[in-house]
Task: structure prediction
Amino acid sequence: MSPSPDLRYARSRISLLLAAAGMALFVGIAIGIHPLRPDLHWLDAQMSRYLLQPYGGWLQLAYCALAIAIVTIAFAVQAALAPSARSGGPTLLFVAGAASLVVTAFAPMDADGADPTFVGWVHGLSAQAAFLCVTVAMLVQSAWLRHDVRWRTRMPLALAIAMAAFAGLWTLVLVDDLPRGAAQKAVIAVIVLWLLVIWSGLLADRRGHRRLPGGTP
Result:
């Protein structure tokens, strides 16, 4: 038995609010933590450096907020798409990426000059898994949008952004001469941009349903 229209609209509203709050909290903290750490140069320092104390707890909160936004949007877009446009693959990848992001937040990297530790190894592995899972999920989910007539017009932009994020990730991995901090933050910004594009599609989709006969005001 499928949920009633009122229940579906209530769920979509909660999903939109939760995802928006998660993205806003992440962006706000990720930007705001930089002036608190004048000892780190933003061009060279990767975000993982800001997870170390002091103020590392704030960025841990931001990572958790982003993970919640990723999972919320992943499930929300699956619910919004036509059955023929749904695939469990992107959702599983998004969940795996979000879980890896949380592990990254709470398994700190090794400090400069310190001996390698198991926790530092876990941090590096989970960070790579988070980037890879999320960017691949973005690509696959963007491609599936073409199967839904209501989302088809958003597919080119979503796919272009996903391709940019995927290319940026591998550029970061393969090119050693890049300023590591700026390059990594650019990839993160592109990922957040993709989430925002999908979020705006969910908002437009909800508004479109409300204008249909019998829609919830």
Notes: The radius of gyration is 18 Å. The CA atoms of residues 10 and 216 lie 9 Å apart.
